[in-house]
Design brief:
Blueprint (H helix, E strand, L loop, with lengths): L2 H19 L3 H12 L4 H20 L9 H23 L3 H24 L10 H18 L3 H8 L6 H26 L4 H23 L6 H24 L1
Subcellular location: Cell membrane
Main location: membrane
Membrane topology: Multi-pass membrane protein
């Protein structure tokens, strides 16, 4: 299998899982493409932002967008957007050692939380308060600005809510669409668009769309509890990756 076919396989796998769980496209694509050496990290990061919009638009189409938890999304975005710029400022004014220490610490916290929730899968009896969603938005924005990793805090929060899985997925997909636009805008404002990103985007967009459609028509045969455990397992992988990159 050539490098192009491997890249398409990674994109399709990430798209299918994100369409199913509401997150993890960036986690899967960044980890697999980097490990296999299929594209440079900076190119892959920008590609992920663009293709995550394709995934979200395809997945939300057909009525899923009607299930968005508007209250949760509003509180998260209210805090996430300014926190993203704060994270970018910290990125530009901190040393590599300081960023590594923060990244490793966040990864360890995420590992502990994910392990706890994987074995004690339960929803809250009542929805979290607005300030609690805002707090997760602050963490998501800071992580996104510093490490291009918006997902873990809000995913952890949403998967504990007494909402349907449709509401969880729709809310996360909408949130990550907004953060992808933020990141794309920030990058394109400061540097020219790499022609490799354009060519890989045109190559990968059909695979991402088809995988998202397949997830809609052929979802995995998992119960809600099993799907939540799977989601927290993906967060565990994300935390492990953050820890390794931060301390090694």
């Amino acid at each position: 299998m050539g490098s192009s076919e491997l890249l398409l396989l990674c994109l399709a796998a990430g798209s299918y899982i994100q369409a199913t769980t509401g997150f993890a496209f960036g986690l899967i694509v960044m980890a697999s493409v980097t490990a296999l050496g299929l594209a440079p990290i900076d190119v892959t990061a920008l590609l992920v932002s663009g293709l995550s919009l394709v995934n979200s638009a395809t997945t939300l189409k057909g009525g899923l967008w009607r299930h968005i938890n508007g209250r949760a999304l509003s509180w998260v975005l209210l805090a996430c957007i300014p926190a993203t710029f704060a994270g970018l400022w910290l990125l530009n004014h901190s040393s590599d050692d300081q960023r590594g220490l923060l990244q490793g610490t966040l990864g360890l916290c995420l590992i502990g939380s994910s392990l706890l929730m994987m074995y004690r899968v339960r929803q809250l009896e009542r929805p979290s308060s607005g300030p609690a969603f805002a707090a997760s938005g602050v963490l998501a924005g800071l992580m996104g600005g510093l490490f291009s990793t918006f997902g873990p805090p809000v995913t952890f929060m949403m998967y504990r809510q007494p909402d349907s899985m449709l509401a969880v997925r729709a809310t996360l997909l909408c949130l990550f669409s907004v953060t992808a636009v933020l990141r794309l805008s920030a990058v394109l404002w400061t540097e020219p668009l790499d022609s490799r990103v354009v060519s890989l985007f045109l190559l990968g967009a059909p695979a991402v769309m088809l995988a998202a459609i397949a997830a809609r028509h052929f979802p995995p045969p998992l119960s809600n509890d099993a799907l939540r455990r799977f989601a927290f397992g993906l967060l565990l992988l994300s935390g492990t990756g953050l820890t390794l990159r931060g301390f090694l």
